[in-house]
Structure formats: structure tokens, C-alpha cells
Here is the input.
Amino acid sequence: MRSFAFEPELAQLGCAVLRSLALGVPENKIAIVAQGGVRQLCEAMARHRGDADVNMQAIAALCNLTSQLAENKRTICEAGALEMTVAALVAHPQHQELQQQGC
Here is the structure.
């Protein structure tokens, strides 16, 4: 995600990979957060504010990272991800899956 940060298709795929890795495996969630994954997801959302698919994948990854791990919730909140999620919800009201993931 760092090497091609300004390519929306690659940002979307990178977010999707993190989303999948964070699904149900606590060790993966901890590792992703420890290695700066939250920052990368937030940066992808910030760089691609107008791309609903990038934002949807990033929000879904953030949701998976928070599941059952209070420390990850704190890290995500401190990174500004909540505000970015709300901004994405407002910016893309017609994108059904983004709306579902964001709520």
C-alpha cells in the first residue's frame, strides 16, 4: 500500500487483504495494528476520499480489527478512523455496502 499509495485500485486491494487477514484471527489483528495497519487504512481513506470502494474496504478492515479487542478499538479511535468513517458515510450515501460496514 505504501509503494503505490496513489493508485485507488491497489489501495482497495490492500485494504481488502487487511480486511481478510483481520477476520476472526486475534493474532493477525494484533500484528496488523502493531505493524501500522491502522495508519495505512486511514491514509488510504484520506487519499481516496472520493472512492467509495476504497473507503468501504478500509472501513470493513477497521471493523474486523476492532472485533473482540478493546486495545485495537482504542488505537483506531486515536488514529481518527471514526471521524474518517463518518466522513465516508456522508460522502457516499448511495453505496449500500459502505453504509452497512460503517454502521
Q: What stands out?
A: The chain has a mean pLDDT of 93. The helical segments are 8-21, 26-34, 37-47, 52-66, 70-78, 81-91, 96-102.
